[in-house]
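Hi there, hope your week has been kind to you so far. No rush at all, and the record is pasted right below.
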Amino acid sequence: MNVIPNIVVIPLKGDLDVTTVASASALIDSFLYREYPRMILNLADVSFIDSSGMGLLWSTMRRIRAHQGIISMINVQPQVLAILRRARMLDFIPLRNSDAFCQKDMFQPHALPLWQRVIQIDPKHLCTTRSRIQEELSQLAFSSDELFDLMLAIGEAMGNAVDHTDGSCSLVRISAYSDRAIVDITDCGEGYEITCVEDLPKVDEGAMRGRGIHLMSLLVDGLSIGKRLGHSGTRVHIVKFISAARA
């Protein structure tokens, strides 16, 4: 069993059919409620899946999402992939590149970015700002899923910057590297700091607010939130790796 901070990778073995689904369900259940907000099912050793297996995947997806988590699959064999596609299961449980969940190389602090951009957030037209940011990030070799996740995280941070300040001095700084993007979102508010995302209070299922930081932590490879040094306001620091560059 591979456990990365906030992530559990569960290897499923053999066929997922009516005779094995109970044991597979018990294995998943043993990790489902252990505060791992991101669950990855490794299907490398699964060669067949029937309707019982589909039901297991569906129920697992619903339960982990009910706890504000994310589920995905890796290493799916071609014959199983064909079954999942026919059942439209990939519309609900995405297939990820397994390399994205390997141990990351240490970032060299002296490494210079390929390029940098600074974009001012327009508090009245966030959509326009997001489009500009996505246009810049599209120059990098992110997959469509990686870019989607990164833009969703940036959008959450931008929304917080505008929601908790007047947004007039909020900026997005993009630093592009060969294997990652580093994005800093800053504002001029009172300043907010958290030492550990996992220590945030749980959000009631019916609550309309309060899920943004949890969501960001699931979408990116690195997240820190703290007060700006020497200035008023908050700095959200996001790191997202490019899986194609690390293959």
Residues 4 and 101 are 8 Å apart (CA to CA).
